[in-house]
Each structure stands twice: as C-alpha cells, then as structure tokens.
Amino acid sequence: MVSMKFQPPKGTRDLLPEDANKLHKIIEICRTVFEKYGFEPLITPAFESFELLSAKGGLGEAVKDEIYYFKDKSDRELGLRFDLTMPLARVVSSTSLPKPFKRYAIDKVWRYDNPAFLRFREFWQADIDVIGSNNMLSDVECVSAVCEILDSLGFKNYFIRVNSRKLLQNEFERIVKKDELIEVFRTIDKLDKIGLEGVEEELKKKNLEPKNILKILKTENLKDVPDNEGKKELIEFFSLAKKLGIDKKLKFDISLVRGLEYYTSVVFEVNLGAKVSCGGGGRYDNLIKNIGGQDLPATGISLGLDRILEVMKENKMSKTEKTNTKVFVANVDNNVIDDAVKIVQQLRKNGINSQMDLMGRSFGKQLEYASNSQIPYVVIVGRDEAKKKTFKLKDMKTGKQRNLALKNIISQLLKMEKTNVTKDILGSLKGWKINTQKALDKLDREEDG
Q1: Under a CB-based contact definition with an 8 Å cutoff, are residues 283 and 267 in contact?
Q2: I want to staple 258 with a disulfide (CB 3.0 to 4.6 A). Which of 129, 267, 372, 431 is the partner?
C-alpha cells in the first residue's frame, strides 16, 4: 500500500493546540472590547453570491481573479467571502435594523493571493462597523476599540496611519482627469511594496505624469494641504481622537488610500511595526446604496488576527498555556480506576477542565504525559487514598504535594483559577488605576470569609 502524506491546501495552515489557544485568547480579547463598545455579533455564510462580491462600488468583476470563485450544482455563481464587510452590507440592505447598527464579526475569510510571509489565503478577521451614522465620532470609536485591543495584547509601538480619499481626490483632480483617478489610487496603494520609484515607473506605464503626483505624496503635515472637505474631516477626526486619548497612536499619511474601492472618505491602517500592517478600514458611505439598499453612511475597521498571532509569537508576547486542561487524575493501578472516574466527573461538574488516563499507561507514564502536556496539577489516586477519601494534589511546577479531601481539592482549584482569571483581567485593563495586589488580597479575604 502506498504511503500518502497530505498537507493543508496552499495558503492555509493548521494551528496545533498551543497556537490555537493563543488565537482563541486574541479572539476573546477582541470580543470583550467590541462588546464593551456596544457592538453586537453578526454571523453570515462563508460564501456569497458572486453578484454581491463583484458589485459595482466594491471590487467589481475583476474580483473573480482574487477570490475563490465556483459554481454550485445548480450552476449558481458563488464565491468565498473576501472580507466581512460585503456580507454585512447585504444584511443591512435587506433587513430593517435600528440605527446606528453597530456590529462585530470574528471569522475566517479567503483571498486567492500568492502566499508569502504573513500572507495567507485563509485567515481570520475581527471586524467592527457602524451603519447609519455620518458622525466622525463613529470612525474614531472604531479606531479607539482597536487601540484598546492592541494595548490589552501588550503591543507598545503600534501606530495607525490615517488619511482621507476625499482629500486625495481633491488634490489629484487638479492634475489628472477624473476617469484616471482609480488608476492613480491603485498605483499609490502599492507604495509600501514597490516604493516611490516603483510608483513612478508604474504611473509612466499608464501614461500618467508622475511629477506632481509624487510631489503630493511627499506632503508630511496636514496643515500643508490646501483646504478642502477631506482636510476638514481629518481635522475633526484628530480632534476627537485627542479627546478619546488615542491621538498619540495616530499618524497622518497622505499616501494611504486602502485597496478596496468602496472607501469614500477617512481611511486608516493599523501597523505593528515599520513594515507590518495588521488591519485597516475607513468610511464607505455608498456601498449599501450601490448593492440596492438604502442610502446609509457606514464606517468600520478590521484586524488580521493571523498576523497579530505571528507577531506576538515572534516577540514572545503570548503567555497562553499550552493546554486548557487544569488537572490530570492519575490512577496508581487498575484497582482504583473507578475512583479516578468518579473524581474526574466531580471535577468537571464543578467546571474544572480535567483529563484521566485513556491509554492504560503505568502511573509513571501518566505523570510523564501530564508533565509533557504542561498540565499544571495532578490528582493522585491510590488504594490508601481511595480508602481514606483523601487524595494527593500535586503542583507539577513546584513538585509539592498535599493530601486533601476531594471537596477541598475542588475548592483550592477553583480559587486558583479565579485568581488567575482576575490577574488576566486586571492585567489587560491598561490605563485603569487599579492596584492588582490589593484587588487580589481583597479576593482572598472574600474567599476566606
């Protein structure tokens, strides 16, 4: 028989438990912050009609080359969603919802890109949007939520580039024809990849004079831009950002256009370092109308969670445990297996993640498995322990053991779990003047009382 080794499809990957746990931690922080800001969850299908995905005002018919496109058995044209905004626009255009509608979605999306470093064909996005509000505070609130997420994850030197497509359009309409704007924007969007020289060459190939375009792109300060509606919006944006305390994380960048053509005004891009972008967004006031819905203003921002995960791993930022199991119940021999089963059941009934031996291993091999799996505690069940109804609780990090009744083991484990959760919560509340040790001391007093 021929041996076959299957690999995940090109551009996708497996996340083993340790990395999957880290991703789940990132997702949980995103969800917690989004809900703190009043965003509600929305779940949509993984695939949509190609008519929606190729709608005018989105990526258009050319999207077929950039997505996973297919026909079903009834010859309907479909595609895997390339972002979480187009499905949202479909829902809003066909459903009566209170305004503003603030929604979040954390899910997978697919793009048929050429895989490269930090670029996958299947990846996770965490997305928030505000539908129905043209108030610039909506845009700033979306950016503020992202700042809180990155602060909570431990990022220090991130920054968010901000610009306005209205501002750029006003500037470029003075030097290029209106029907050439899209090509100019598409070329500028490649600036990070090909540099100014590359942009200059591509503009020449498109028969566009690069001199004045490049001169505009070298503008560093918003105050140096001629007055126009886009500049007015950006001034308001930065003013509101200062009131929310995130202004120091923002940078005006006149070269930022964002690739998706449905953006109409303020746009932003999240950078974890000089060359690592992990998300972005902006205002898209015409998209819902363009796909047949009401004329509703909208804005939003999205984070690429796979990139955040990889940067955190590279910089050893994640403290997530290798396993979610808190206790392994080890039986000394086969005579006490029934006792071990009962203990596992009691632990699980009390919400304590527990495992027991399923392989018929020796006691020594069970301890070795628990150690290799980084399970923090082991409950040891032997004949004497079963008779006395007291069992050894072993701390696998320190090696210390204590003889305790099962109810006391459960109490101790629950207390330790509550303390660890509290540390995580308090540690993530950046900027809050909370004395962690005092809070934990208070928790201990409450537990003892």
Answers
A1: yes
A2: 267
Q: In what order do the strands lie in the sheet with 77-80?
A: 47-49, 77-80, 69-71
pLDDT of residue 149: 97
> Do 360 and 293 belong to one domain?
no
Contact 113, 11 (CB under 8 A): yes
What CA–CA distance (Å, rounded) separates 230 from 163? 9
Residues near 262 by beta carbon (within 8 Å), at least 6 away in sequence: 57, 58, 85, 284, 286, 287, 290
CB atoms within 10 A of CB 308: 27
Residues 6+ apart with CB under 8 A from 183: 206, 208
Q: Please check whether residue 387 lies inside any domain of the structure.
A: yes
Q: Which of 281, 314, 347 is the last residue of a domain?
A: 314
Cβ contacts of 296 within 8 Å, gap of 6 or more: 92, 99, 131, 132, 285, 288, 289
Distance of CA 311 to the CA centre of its chain: 12
Q: Please write the tens of the pLDDT for every residue from 260-291.
A: 678 899 999 999 987 789 999 999 999 999 99
Distance CA(321)–CA(21), nearest Å, equals 8
Quick one: DSSP state of residue 114? P
Q: Are residues 300 and 243 in the same domain?
A: yes
Domain that holds residue 42: 17-314
Query: Are residues 274 and 410 located together in one domain of the fold?
Result: no
Q: How many domains does the chain have?
A: 2
Final residue before a domain boundary, out of 250, 285, 314: 314
Residue-wise pLDDT for 191-213, tens only, equals: 877 888 888 888 888 878 878 88
Asked whether residue 35 is domain-assigned, the answer is yes
C-alpha Rg value of the chain to the nearest Å? 27
Q: Give dist(CA 232, CA 166) in Å, integer.
A: 10
Exposure on the CB side of residue 352, measured as CA atoms within 13 A: 30
The partner residues of 106 in beta bridges, in order of sequence, read 126
Q: 213 and 132 in one domain?
A: yes
CA distances from 103 to 96, 142, 301 (A): 14, 11, 11
Is 247 in the same domain as 347?
Answer: no
Structure pTM? Answer: 0.86
The β-bridge relationship of strands 277-283 and 101-110 is unpaired
